[in-house]
Amino acid sequence: MSANLSAIFYLISGILFILALRGLSSPETSRQGNFFGVLGMVIAITVTFLSIGNYSSGFIYVLIFLLIGGLIGTFIAYKIPMTAMPELVAGFHSLVGLAAVFVAIAAFLNPEAFNLGTIGNINLGSLIEMSIGAAVGAITFSGSIIAFLKLQGIMSGAPITFKGQHPLNALILISIVVLTYLLCSTQSSNFFWILLAVSFLIGFLLIVPIGGADMPVVISMLNSYSGWAAAGIGFTLENSALIITGALVGSSGAILSYIMCKSMNRSFFSVILGGFGTTDQISSSSQNKEQRPVKSGSAEDGAFLMKNASSVIIVPGYGMAVAQAQHALREMVDTLKKNDIKVTYAIHPVAGRMPGHMNVLLAEANVPYDEVFELEEINNDFANADVAYVIGANDVTNPAAKTDPQSPIYGMPILDVEKCKSVLFVKRSLSPGYAGIDNDLFYKENTLMLFADAKKMTEDITKNL
Amino acid sequence: MEIDPFIFRLSIFILSIFIGYYVVWSVTPSLHTPLMSVTNAISSVIIVGAIIAGLSGDSENIFNSSSIFGFMAISLAAINIFGGFLVTQRMLQMYKKKKKDN
Question: What is the interface pTM, i.e. ipTM, of the complex?
């Protein structure tokens, strides 16, 4: 296949990837979009085989390795529980990053195969592109590994900070630029390996200080990085499918990061610098926590309030995911609906550990997506609702974000749960949320705390309805 | 003076960023998780580079240092391609509208 013809097919596959993302503008078109994505991938891979046209040597091995990866991927895709989606996405990001690094290494070791020149004499432009792709890929890999470990709970979700962190990171980032320059001027492979090692290190150091509550931003950011890494390699390979995809994924991740930061009223920069939710914030807020009285109740009390309501709004959060309470919740809602009670769901953009996390869990529990609303769509409805059922959410309902300029979450858009006639707050204890701050909502007159595991409490309420 | 082909690739890249910007803003927030998993899958089109590296050896020397990295990258990218598209499909199948009668 001629180079021109294959370039046209790569362009087609790039367009199909654009259509794949376009399909996600609504659930109805999304499945078709996913099909376009698969089609684009099949075209890209087929064209690559046809354009190389060398089936004698490694072809069978390429197929074997493709099959191994494919089987592992298929196995994971069907086995993974929906609650583990943030970990899975972080894990997938790390694989894209590592694949980018490996392709860059392969191209560096054998530039002839990629038409980039010869060893020790690689075209300057290609070498720069390759270095950028490799460095960003390495950062994506090690950063995603840390994010994965934090999300899995293998590593503490608390931010890990140490003195001199920022100067050290700045120094490493400068050294990456210097190493790229040295690599390009000397073509020495030593600089290439050091560049990779330093990039792995900085990815690790960048994510370690970022706390659990900021994970939605981190995941989106790493999503973006994986795109830029792919684009860097795309320039090296002169492949338009890869360049288009890299740009799409890069901007997609960047937009998601922006949405997440805005929903937390935090600047992207302050998230990156990390350290949110450290211990000194907890201690400062506990000073004014002079044993205020809370009303706590049982499942019967909760069921009584809901039975007498005409409209109920459910506010799910990360705690629902942890307790795997989404199915129990749907059953409770079914019972409520049988009693002619209007039920809707309100989702804060940063509820959970990644963008859209709650929506997926509710969809898994067969909640129709037209009963699920975003913050702006539903926030005015709280004033007219009888009961808000807060299950596993905390910081996103904290009125301190509006009233207390001292609060670390001041200015963050919140769900106006306190405007409801009564609030049922399912929580295991009075402990603060991930931001490490107390929630005034616990002590409000119209709040009833239901201290229990989210799943168990929801099931008990259903029994009492 | 001739234009460097790099400039054309750069044009594709920058225009694609703009396309990405507008397309992603139109993605409904409830599908942000499938968005992330599908972007994972499509960015694994990096597999084309891995295949080139994997096929770079000659018949006496199929496993050279470069092709070994290529083979490993093929497997990693394939995990993402199959895993990413299938898990996206699995999620999207769950998004249902309210049933008319119930």
Answer: 0.94
Enumerate residue ranges in chain A where pLDDT < 50. Answer: 277-289
Cβ(A219)–Cβ(A263) below 8 Å: no
Q: Do A110 and B37 touch (CB under 8 A)?
A: no
- Residue A275 pLDDT: 59
| Residue A313, strand partner residues | A344, A388
In terms of phi and psi (left: phi > 0; alpha: psi -120 to 50; beta: otherwise), the region of A316 is beta
What does the pLDDT look like over B10-54, one tens digit per residue?
Answer: 999 999 999 999 999 999 999 999 999 999 999 999 999 999 888
Tokens of A297: 């109740």
**Predicted TM-score of the model (pTM):** 0.90
Does the beta carbon of B14 lie under 8 angstroms from any beta carbon of chain A? yes
Interface check for A184 against chain B (CB to CB < 8 A): the answer is no
Distance CA A336, CA A295 (A): 24
Asked if the Cβ–Cβ distance from B53 to A354 is below 8 Å, we say no
Contact of A444 with A418, CB cutoff 8 Å: yes
User: What is the rounded CA–CA span in Å between residue A84 and residue B82?
Assistant: 18
Q: Does A8 touch chain B (CB under 8 A)?
A: no
pLDDT of residue A136: 94
Longest dimension (CA), chain B: 71
DSSP A363: H
Question: Which of A13, A227, A366 is nearest residue B43 as measured by Cβ atoms?
Answer: A227
Amino acid at A286: S
A48-61 pLDDT, tens digit each: 988 887 766 678 88
The DSSP letter of residue A213 is: G
Beta strands at A387-391 and A422-427: parallel, antiparallel or unpaired: parallel
Gap between the terminal Cα atoms of chain A: 68
Distance in Å, alpha carbon of A25 to nearest chain B alpha carbon:
4
Q: Which residues contact A444 (CB under 8 A, 6 or more apart)?
A: A418, A423
